[in-house]
Amino acid sequence: MPPTFKQRSKDLFEKYYPIEIDPHISVEEKIPFMIQWYDGAHKLMQDSNLYKEDFELMIKERHLEFR
Fold this sequence. Notes:
This protein is mainly α. Helices cover 75% and strands 0% of the residues. The mean pLDDT is 88.
């Protein structure tokens, strides 16, 4: 993984996770933010040149849980 991947992934989490778990925000209000988070994470993986084989290797080497 590129050195910036971990930090950029953490930045996305710190921005969007509080919105995801906020009980004062309705699901309807959360949806656009969750789509932005998904799109941002997807772009981050694309920019990191990840391929299907990379995921297979990561899963074999570590216990991962995908959301």
